[in-house]
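Schema walkthrough. Field components (list of strings):
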Amino acid sequence: MKKLVATFVLGTVLVAGLLFSQDQPTDTASELEPSIFSISNTSSFF
Amino acid sequence: MEIGPYIKLHRIKQEMTQAELAEGIVSFAYLSKIENQKTEASPDVISLLCTRLGIQLDNEKDITIKEKCQEWFGQLFEVNSKEEIKKNYKELEELLENNHSESLVMFEIHKIRYFLVLGEKEEALKQINNLAEISSTFDSLHQFYWYKFKGNYSSIDGEFNQAMKMYKLAEDKLNQLDLAEEEIADLHYTIAVTHSKLRNTLEAIEYADKSIDIYRKQYNFMRCAQCHIILGISYRRIKMYEKAIKNHNLAKHLGKLNKNKQTIQLANQNLGYLHSARGDAKEAIHYYVEVVNDPEIDLNAKLTAVTSLIKEYYSIYNFNKTKEMIEKGFELLDDYNTSESYKIHYYVINTYNYAIKEEKDKFESLVIDEFIPYLKKHKDYANIVVYANMLGNHFEKISRYKDSVKYYKLANLTYEELISL
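Field assembly_structure (string):
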């Protein structure tokens, strides 16, 4: 029984750790990649 | 390009059937064989077909056309006046309509890029569909550009998985071709941006590094700056914040050297987001404000910074500043609020406006009936997580726990989907 509980606890910790280490979802409206074209001084960078 | 596919291309361009072109010259079946390179027609037959299509066969002119084409192709890769690009396009179109030229197919393929640079997405798609019929006759060089520009179309269309497939097909052609370094750098840079969009962070770094090496050697500072921004975004995602900041600052520095406001403010916007993601609202606000206060940047860039500020002020409960930014957002949107390009900003500003005024019904109706369906349609999973969470939180506060659970669940499921992408 103790082994079962220990396995369960360890599994939970591992899953939680894995989720924590994942990248947080990005606010795609705020973080912006540059255009695939060259950026001019006047045109949009979207 | 062989004469057969060349005749076929001209015939399709002029919307002529095989029967119409062949009439009185050769049989319909024989023309089909010529077009598909299954037979070699006599020079007399070729000459008659070209005359009917209104094409002159002049080798000297072909050399001039080739040079003009090379110049125009180059203009599509660097920052050039759109008017100049359009002028040269019209001149080439006229020349190629009346003369047989080896450059015709390459010109037709580059038209895809031309329409995309001008922002004419529908025309680019039309051109892709026109060329699909003769794409089986393309040689390796044609195929390289064909795949690359089809990828460019998918990138502009927001279909990044499809774009990546096309870029990889173009990349496969590299070992069969002897292309200039800047061509290779451009493809690698484009692949880096696409990996970044797909959140393949390590691959984005790998390709940005590859292309920046070439751009450095060529002193192409603006492209170096664009690579630094990709690196800045990528290092933030793997939480190497110092390296991320260094790259964004390098991009800013290069932007300043070239007096390129768009690049400077793109770096500032991303620096703002970096600090926001780290929970440093004060620093985030500092960078976003720089973007908002720049009179030279375009509306979309300004709206992005304004909506970022709305979220930032709201998160630190500075509701006066949130209201101020909401008003600024409405001012900027003004007559454009129905345009598709500004739709996301329209929804964000209105969502926070109803939230801060505690207009519950309007808030719920906007986010549930319009904003979340809009985000689903655009596969914007990251924002679905943000606004589904906001709804869950809202319902929890007013003790509507069943609804609250529903939206927290949506946020969780979408988050899982985002991770699996």
